[in-house]
Design goal:
- The protein is of the alpha+beta class and 210 residues long.
- It has a domain of 123 residues.
- It has four helices and twelve strands.
Length: 210
């Protein structure tokens, strides 16, 4: 009974990308898709899939290399994960990004530059005796997509868009974050650039702002 109760309260989390599907899980039927996992100490591994576990205090990924070795790597030890395949949705890069004093997560690179844009997408499943992060058999409990921006030289990314009202509105967040570019702030205040223009805003900053 205790074992079943523990399994029910354990949550498995998978980093996802709305454009590319689920990172670590081949949902695009792209048999060529391969992930290259690079650690902070320079080690690299290749795998066809991986699962990410963020249950309780455990934060790690598990995978089997293309050579057949089973590996477990702590998320804090990951530098980046590069996915490559024949289909566009199979090609993306994830990095382990700090976004608060005590929290970090794998995020998908959207734009890289003076200001980089990252997408953090999380699908959480209720665990049971037959479910894993790669092959969940339970219904999806929650899906949350958020965007973070990171300026060169800064150690922590800032929340800019998502569904968490506690972090403020997109407009206010954007005005504050891009306050060192008056022309861009004016465009945001005048509503030329809105929530749906986030990628254009970041691109404008990287190309037009000093």
């Amino acid at each position: 009974m205790k074992k079943n109760l523990l399994l029910l309260i354990v949550l498995f989390s998978i980093q996802t990308n709305a454009q590319f599907g689920v990172a670590g899980v081949n949902l695009s039927n792209d048999k060529s898709q391969v992930y290259t996992i690079t650690t902070n100490n320079g080690k690299t591994f290749t795998t066809k899939s991986y699962s990410e576990k963020t249950a309780l205090k455990i934060k790690e990924i598990k995978f089997k290399t293309t050579d057949g070795e089973k590996k477990t790597v702590a998320l804090s030890q990951i530098d980046k994960i590069i996915s490559i395949g024949k289909k566009d949705r199979s090609n993306f890069t994830q990095k382990y990004i700090k976004y608060s004093k005590s929290k970090s997560a794998l995020m998908t690179e959207v734009i890289i530059g003076k200001v980089s844009l990252y997408q953090k997408s999380q699908v959480t499943y209720k665990g049971n005796s037959g479910s894993t992060a790669i092959n969940p058999t339970a219904n999806t409990a929650n899906t949350n997509i958020t965007y973070y921006v990171l300026k060169e030289g800064q150690a922590m990314a800032k929340y800019i868009k998502g569904n968490n009202i506690d972090y403020g509105s997109f407009r206010n967040n954007a005005i504050k974050f891009f306050s060192d570019c008056e022309l861009l702030v004016t465009k945001i205040k005048n509503k030329k650039y809105k929530r749906k223009h986030l990628e254009e805003i970041v691109t404008y900053y990287n190309e037009e702002c000093e």
